[in-house]
Amino acid sequence: MINPSLAGAITNDAWITKNDVPDPEVLPDLPGYHVLVRPTSIKEKTKGGILLPEKARDDIAYLTTVGRVLKVGTLAYEDPAKFLAGAWCKAGDYVCYQKLTGTKFVYKGVKLLLIFDDQVLMRITDPEDLDTTLVLGN
């Protein structure tokens, strides 16, 4: 199997809008099975308050696949045969998704990601709880 070249792909670390930029007040309509996600910024300090070096922050950002759900499409999670327990997420939830998932675009100055409802891997309470530094060591 030949893997397609990702030389022109935008990496996760380049697809995060700073936290001080507010969400757009008016969001686009989402017909269908989509979930609109705003990827979250990575942490800059350890739990103990130590500032992470830039290289570590870059590595963590590359591995970051967490975002906040801004809006859920009109048909998302409506298939009871597929989503037996109901919706996997709602606006305001933090979710994890796979690294190369979704369509990236900029809307009103904010970098967003559009994924399908079944591409949500898990819902988390706080993105700071994920310790992506565990996978950095060799």
Structure description:
- A 6-stranded antiparallel beta sheet has the order 4-5-1-2-3-6, with no helix packed on it.
- Helices cover 7% and strands 22% of the residues.
- The protein has one helix at residues 54-63, and strands at 34-39, 66-72, 94-96, 103-107, 110-116, 122-124.
- The chain is mainly beta and 138 residues long.
- It has a domain at 35-118: Roll (10 Kd Chaperonin, Protein Cpn10, Chain O), CATH 2.30.33.
- The model has no long low-confidence stretch (mean pLDDT 82).
- The longest helix is centred in the middle third of the chain and has 10 residues, at 54-63.
- The whole-number mean of residue pLDDT values reads 82
Sheet of most strands? 6 strands, antiparallel
Q: What is the CA-CA span between the terminal residues?
A: 27 Å
Structural class: mainly beta
Q: Which blocks of ≥5 consecutive residues have pLDDT under 50?
A: none
What is the chain-wise order of helices and strands?
EHEEEEE
Strand order of the largest sheet: 4-5-1-2-3-6
DSSP E strands, number: 6
Tell me the fraction of residues in β-strands, as a range.
Answer: 15-25%
Count of alpha and pi helical runs: 1
CATH superfamily heading of one domain: GroES chaperonin
- The CATH class label of one domain is Mainly Beta
Indicate the radius of gyration in whole angstroms.
Answer: 16 Å
CATH topology of one domain: 10 Kd Chaperonin, Protein Cpn10, Chain O
